[in-house]
Amino acid sequence: MKKSFLMLFFLVLLQMSYGADKIKSSIVKIYSTHQQYDFRSPWQNGSDYNSTSTGFIVDGNRIITNAHAVLSNRFLQVRKEGEAKKYKASVEFISEEYDLALIKVDEPGFFNGTVPLKFSGIPMNRDKVAIYGYPMGGDKLSITEGIVSRIEHSKYTLTTEKFLIGQTDAAINPGNSGGPVISKGKVVGVAFSGLLGADNIGYFIPTPIVEHFLNDIKDGNYDGMPKLGIIWSELESPSHRKMLGVENTSTGILIKKIKKNSPLENMLKKGDVLLKLDNYSIEYDGTVEFRKNERTDFNYVVQSKNFGELLRYEIMRDKKKITGEVKLTKDRIPFDLIKNSSFEEPPTYFIYGGLIFEPLTDIYINNSPIKLPEDIDSIQGFQDKKELVVLVRVLSDDVNIGYNNYYDAIITKVNGKSYEDFKDFVKIVKLSKAEFMKFEDMDGNEIVLDTQQVGERNSEIFQNYSIDKEMSADIADIYQ
């Protein structure tokens, strides 16, 4: 009996060792040289820097890692665990919103001896996980272990959007980014961030997000997740609920606005109570039960969908329940004035009299202290705009004395005239024959420059600040 027990014990250890070896064979170290653009000095390419990170092999002889690990890369290499040779690689697909990327290696033989890792579902709280990666400070593969602390919605590294996120007490340090989070021999997430100033708190991208990304790119294009384009508020007040006809339940959020181009634009209206999406009841605080006794943001339901799929909804309007469904299509977005942009693309800009102007983008908002109202596209005078212009900062010069401390200001008018988009803004400025150029911002502040003095000073401003061109190449056709 004792001998049989020992044999079983050693067999289990052997299987565990074999499983760990299979996982290790599919982990790679990523070496990337980056050159990212600087939106505060948009005429510059930015300085080069090197980084290392982690990735792992999945079906199709491709490698999953974080987007920020390979973002704006100029040279990319990968190295298999246990080998010294580095192989040249390239980014095949990238999602800045999910912070995920898929990279490939063309050299024959790279994937020999590797086994693609398989995915599992969302881990439960208190489940044990192991994170494989190459944290800074060493060159060998590191494995840290911990438990899942919680699953909820939160902001990702590169976006203003919130998606499902996992938290663990396993250490995730610089260099671990992109490594697999393993539970019971399968991938339950992709490591992507630690919390600055906190020990033993790390975050990972759960498998539903990863699998959505992989399914999305099967047609050769990356589309992203559908969005509803609505503004809502919590509905906790018993009196408010009674007035709306939902007093005997805790279900429902109040619709404040349906944005232009929202898939629900012609179906919902202000004052509706959104009760359900598909089979998920939405509580008054905007959460749904995504599994027993665990709640997260109701956008979990929408983010589980692909473009082209149907989404069912149930609302309360005039104390009557109404049901319907909508097809989620990509052709009607964006919903608002904030332009979607990419870290991979050079910033759009225009410089006039030392004032640096750019279109307001999601990246700009996510990387600056600028504060915006929730419903910015409803502000008086903004309804007819397709894009907003932001004054990034002022390059100090004699021509702009008195305005040196202006930055992150949304410009609404030029010489009292509104503009449609950024190109229209630049065109108005460049073609103006007025003696003075007056810029008005959202708060009613005014910046006035002498146009003749600007013409005299522009070349010296560009020379002083090492600026080659007054505007980016993508808007240089405004005179054509």
Give an account of the 3D structure.
This protein has 480 residues and is of the alpha+beta class. It contains eight helices and 27 strands. The chain has helices spanning 2-25, 67-70, 207-216, 238-244, 299-302, 362-366, 422-431, 451-464, and strands at 27-35, 48-58, 62-65, 73-80, 87-88, 90-95, 100-104, 128-133, 142-155, 162-168, 180-183, 186-194, 202-206, 230-233, 253-258, 273-277, 280-281, 287-291, 294-297, 310-317, 320-327, 350-352, 355-359, 389-394, 409-414, 436-441, 446-450. The protein has a seven-stranded antiparallel beta sheet. The chain has a six-stranded antiparallel beta barrel with strand order 8-9-10-13-12-11. A hairpin with a 3-residue loop joins β2 and β3. The longest helix is centred in the N-terminal third of the chain and has 24 residues, at 2-25.
